[in-house]
Amino acid sequence: MSKLNIISSGLPSHPSEITKEFNAESFKGLNIAFINMPLRESAAPNVPPEGPGILSSICRMYGASPSILDLNAYRIKDNSALHIPNGRYLTLTEAEDLIVRHFNMVGTPDVVAFSGIITTLKWQEDLATIVKRHLPDCFLVSGNGLATEIKKGLFHWIPELDAVARSEGDDVILAVLNDAQQIKEHGIEKAYKIGKLSPYYIGAYAGRPRFQYEGDRPKDLDSLPYAAVDLLESDPDGYNVLNQYINIPVWGTAANNSSATPFTMERSLTTVSSRGCPYACAFCYRGAQGERNYGMRSSEHIAKQVRGYVDDYNLDFIGFPDDNFAVDKRRIKRMIPVFKEYGLDKVRWGTHTRMDEADARLADMAESGCVYIGFGAESASEHTLTLMKKGGHILRNGLEATKVNGTTYQFPKTMMNGIKNCHDTGIHPNCTWIMGYPGETLEDLKISVAFILWQQEFWSSFYPAGSPEHANALEAVNRKMFTATAYPGTEMWKVVRADLKKHFNITFDADGEPVCDENFHQYVLELDDATKVLTSLTGTDVNYGAMPIDIFLSTREHIDNNQIEKILEM
Count of CB atoms within 10 A of residue 486's CB? Predict the structure, then answer.
């Protein structure tokens, strides 16, 4: 096939404009397999892949036959794997075996779609080779976080890809199906010549035809179908993957995901009730993915889905792992009558939101069933919060002198009030933390550690010392911390450019984008676990913070050994 020129015509303002003519018969007979990549291996897999689930439901609406192979369900390799059927560290050989047997079970896919965040690069590289070896003619596309954050180099790193799909894919998945169908029916050259391909066709790259899709959020999230979780009910061995997710708590120590709760969840599922976040924390990858715009589903849309989940799967808990659930007070207020109307006022639920939003709206959230909120506190230090660009909201109420273990610390009043407000409304708060942020000193880190210990003092003070309730209150405060990691496109990424050059020899083009050479490739491969200390090209440990490297490593060791009190003695 001759090399085609890069197509430079302008794309439509929204992908739905080129898909509006499709109907329920448009893709009948087309088979698409979604493969969800494994995440970090330390935490128990407890959140089913809602993205592939929603896309599968959309595919069904237009006649296609979707399936989901959720490799993430098999990823763990800690002691908890002993208690989870089929839950163990997944080797590449095991993954290939599952892929082949999945394809045999569902029929030969015309489209294979990878889903995974930036930490899954190595998996996608390896699995792309495997998929193309078994299905050389399939239309292979990578979407989600990895495809969005790596703007220019993914075809170079994963040459087996036919396409990448950047940003949100709810509408663009139909363009993917259309192009795959046209290529299957006409061949790439004829489909191009007769104008059957979507505007996302970019021509030849490295000698092969390629597509680069640019997704966008649907204007109305209520228009989207619910995730096709039924596709997780049986894997090639007849194993019920969905039931595994239901039986692993969304949050709590059993999940091993930097969360803690004083209560248990027997049967739980999750669904995202909103997308994006209107704020601009410097370390957050959402900005890099173009997801600062905030969109949310209505209370009615949520309630109908939750009612179905509770009825179908006998759940006692629903998790909404949103980036920021409580942005709109009106929706929270509306949930009270709507959840009562659907008989959900006794169903417990939890979510994530900002600590400055832990105000009067907590009472409304509690009345509609909320018993858990995860707060991205990240730090209790005024200095570090300012560096993270979280200070404008968290610090607006000033600081409060508080004594912990005989030493006085200055804590943000907003954070302390958020914890106390949660207590008053019967909601358990869980704070997550980041250490080693650029500019963070040992004294900054000590303030965060002290705030954790203050939380333990606060919650345990309501129970007699030595009682089971007292011990439970202590255990229900998260003491883990992530290591600050620079993700491409974030504000933190820009701050540490000199460090990226020094430790990883990363260079940047005229647009300020990293050159996708082997050095940048190795850096991205290092981003496989947000809890670990990165290793430079020369094999040395990397510290972005202001602490000397030996001090930094000592604090990291104390955190990993659950001995954070020792940091206060340093």
Answer: 26
**Calpha distance 468→161 (Å, rounded):** 55
Stretch (H or E) spanning 67? strand 65-70
Say how many C-beta atoms besides its own lie within 10 A of residue 296's C-beta.
Answer: 20
At residue 144, what is the residue type? N
What is the torsion angle, in degrees rounded to the nearest 10, for the CA atoms of residue 556, residue 561, residue 562 and residue 563? -80
109 close to 138: Cβ distance less than 8 angstroms: yes
CA distance 120 to 38: 7
Is the sign of the CA dihedral 92, 95, 100, 103 positive or negative?
Answer: negative
Token pair of 141 as six digits: 């596309």
The dihedral region occupied by 369, where left means phi > 0, alpha psi between -120 and 50, and beta the remainder, is: left
Q: Where are the beta strands (DSSP E) in 326-417?
A: 348-353, 370-378, 399-404, 407-412
Structure tokens at 56: 């599968």
Dihedral over alpha carbons 522, 528, 534, 539 (to 10 degrees)? -50
Integer Cα distance of 26 and 178 in angstroms: 8
Q: Which helix (H) or strand (E) holds 414?
A: helix 413-425
Asked if residue 570 lies in contact with residue 551, where contact means CB atoms within 8 angstroms, the answer is yes
The number of helices, as runs of H, and strands, as runs of E, in the chain is: 21, 17
CB 152 within 8 A of CB 517: no
Distance CA 69, CA 113 (A): 10
Structure confidence by residue, pLDDT tens digits, 418-458: 999 999 999 999 999 999 999 999 999 999 999 999 999 99
Domains and CATH numbers, the chain: 16-217 (3.40.50.280), 249-483 (3.80.30.20), 491-569 (no CATH)
The DSSP result for 487-540, as a single string, is -TTSHHHHHTHHHHHHHH---B-TTSPBP-SHHHHHHHHHTT-TTSPPB-TTS-
pLDDT digits (tens, 9 = 90+) for 185-231: 999 999 999 999 999 999 988 888 999 998 888 889 999 999 999 99
DSSP state of 508: B
CA distance 454 to 444: 16
Residue 544's SS3 state is: coil
- DSSP H stretches of helix in 229-360: 241-247, 299-313, 329-341
d(CA 377, CA 89): 31
Q: Could you give the CA distance from residue 504 to residue 522 in angstroms, rounded to a whole number?
A: 8
- First vs last C-alpha separation in the chain: 66
